[in-house]
Amino acid sequence: MKIGIDKIGFFAPHLYLDMNKLAVERNVEPEKFTIGIGQEKMAVAPITQDPVTLAANAALEILSEEDKQQIDFVIFGTESGIDNSKSAGVYVHNLLGINPYARTVEVKQACYGATAGIQMAKGHIALNPESKVLVLGSDIARYGLKTGGESTQGAGAVAMLISANPKIMALEEHSTFMTNDIMDFWRPVYSDKAFVDGKFSNEQYILFFSKVWEQYKEKSGLGLEDFEAICCHLPYTKMGKKALQTIWDERTEEDKERISENYKISTTYNRNVGNIYTGSLYLSMLSLLELKEDLKPGSRIGLYSYGSGAVGEFFTGILEEDYRKSLQVDQHRKLFSTRQEVTVAEYEEIFEDTLPVDGSAMELDIEKDPAAICVAGIADNKRQYVNKLR
Fold this sequence. Notes:
Blueprint: E1 3-11, E2 15-18, H1 19-25, H2 30-36, E3 41-44, H3 51-60, H4 65-70, E4 71-77, H5 88-96, E5 103-107, H6 113-127, E6 132-141, E7 154-164, E8 169-179, E9 185-186, E10 195-196, H7 198-220, E11 229-232, H8 237-244, H9 253-266, H10 268-271, H11 280-291, E12 300-307, E13 311-319, H12 329-337, E14 340-342, H13 344-352, E15 362-363, E16 373-379, E17 382-387
Parallel strand pairs: 2-14, 4-5, 4-6, 11-12
Antiparallel strand pairs: 1-7, 1-8, 2-3, 6-7, 8-13, 9-10, 12-13, 15-16, 16-17
Helix pairs in contact: 1-2, 3-5, 7-8, 9-11
């Protein structure tokens, strides 16, 4: 029985910041951002969007009423969750009107959370072939204004429907993974901003890739020549390229050119959204599938997931016949084309405009936000969510 990705959706806020203009304002050469780390635009989340609404909006575009009744498991991967007790997935479950007889949980391991969700979903469907599982990866990356990590911020979500006999990608059996207790990136519960040891994190990302890749080759008997493309978790788009460069000497120049060309295509969406943590790998995969129109069914796609702290995994999928018919290309093209640019000053104001953490009530103007699902405020220490389509 094939198990894999049946549908995939993506959502980002309607605001963005041009990285060239941020560089000028920060007295940095623009090429350091656009070439050095490979970022062009950063999605900026207004106060009316949080990880819950981003995820719900991403799922809204792909789920039919039939899907909502068949889903019996919702898995929300995030590292910027809004509550230390209640799962962010429960809010999404309600906002979308999913079958009440479903499990709903939140999974946390830095940027690896959505991958953990997919692997959990595979096991669930193997035991329950008629089930469908909604896996969400949603985050708002915050490092702080004028910090070293500012240029690698972003906001967005990816939603995936995992099922038997998937229409987009069947996930293969072999998967290799590893864990090591390191402090390359972390966010204590008392902080709304992350801490990172950038150089160490880069080194560990590459080291984990090398180790799980070698283990994968040994376990599967496959090599670089068997892949049409390899997509990576992208805290910034230059990061995956650094990891792939470590295996260029394994095969022919033709293999190198193919993987390199397809990797570049896979970074397009990420270059224009920024870091979305748990959803970054799957945004990269989506960029490849939607923008490379001649990508053939039957192609094997490698997927490298990394979550600081740290857990890494390499696994693969095979594209199904007519997979392009199940993609939301037009919707995502419209999403990017209708976004509004903000100035650096406006971005800084939005960044500092946060929900109260002292129990105060707040009512927000959601009419300025074109998204269907928004945060409408806080009352009695509870976030108030609105689905405008209801």
